[in-house]
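Today's session is about reading a structure prediction critically. Students often jump straight to the picture, but the first step is always the sequence itself: look for stretches that repeat, for charged clusters, for runs of hydrophobic residues. Only then move on to the predicted structure, which in these notes is written as discrete structure tokens rather than atom positions. Here is the chain we will use throughout the hour.
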Amino acid sequence: MKARIDKVKKYLVKNNLDAAFIYYPLDTGRFLPNVRYLTGYSGSSGAVFVTRKASIFITDFRYKDQAAKQVKGCKVIISRLNPVAALKDIKEAQVKNLRLAIESHRMTVQQKTQLGNTLPNAILIDTFEMVEELMICKDKDEIANIKRAVEISDIAFERILGILKPGIREKDVAAELEYQMKMLGADREAFESIVASGYRSALPHGVASEKKLKNGEFITFDFGALYNGYCSDITRTVVLGKANARQKKIYQIVARAQMAAIRKTRAGVTGKAVDAVARSVIEKAGYGKQFGHGTGHGIGLEVHAAPRVSALGVQLLKSNMVMTIEPGIYISGWGGVRIEDDVVVRPKGCLVLNQAPKKLLEI
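Below is the predicted structure for this chain, in token form.
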């Protein structure tokens, strides 16, 4: 963790800043990704205050023992106040004209106002995705955690195929899928699982519903495991029963688009370029208007992170970025197909982490 804190300190020097306050005050009911990245802390309340020389972790009594066990590279302060108010008791924060970097996208207006009132002599400098920029390329431990999360999701997918039959509710399939991931060692699911069958498979974010599975329909699964804080994100589309000619055609178009994007992915190209090759395959097949989202996104401690793999993805890909490749076609009222893998960017290509089958399965 010290190496990660040192990255923040170097950022401060490079950008003529005195300190940084890393805080994730929005109640997600989960953990604080930027705080966890810097300290190893997995609790749901805490903040990090970093100067060019010091690093301090702030939390409250509820997390005293957890912080003592997990936090690395920081002095731990247990306060009766919330992390913003607690800064008034930290001498390193009581510097006149302190140029303090804040992650403005992580704070509410009310919390930013409170911070200004707590440190009236500080100059608050809005930064955007400061820590996200530092964590975009994964180290070997992070990649190992993501690989294990992917393995869990792959195995859970293959296990779930055995229970698919007409009459089962999508919600019941999702519950079993999440149970299997936990049995395989996941902390929990990485996000609300999507199980969308028939006409609902045309909903890119069609979370599991009361709808019952029927023969002859697509079933799209989009889910992920959270392992040691790190996410996987996989999508597979199958047919319950025999696939018809139209289903086979749409599936093969998406499969070609995904493979084209995977072949394009390497360090030095942009996310926009990867998106373009997948989109070109689908557009040439006549379904460009039915592919309305980006081709992928970064993953790590959060399931949606940089880099962007879309028309807005102008950032050059770098080695050890981890991202998804997930083109799709969605035909309203009929159904849709999406195929998604997690990949690690390499200098001359990418490593596909998922091993779950991608041929069209007829269950």
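Discussion point for the tutorial: The chain has two domains: 2-135, 140-352.
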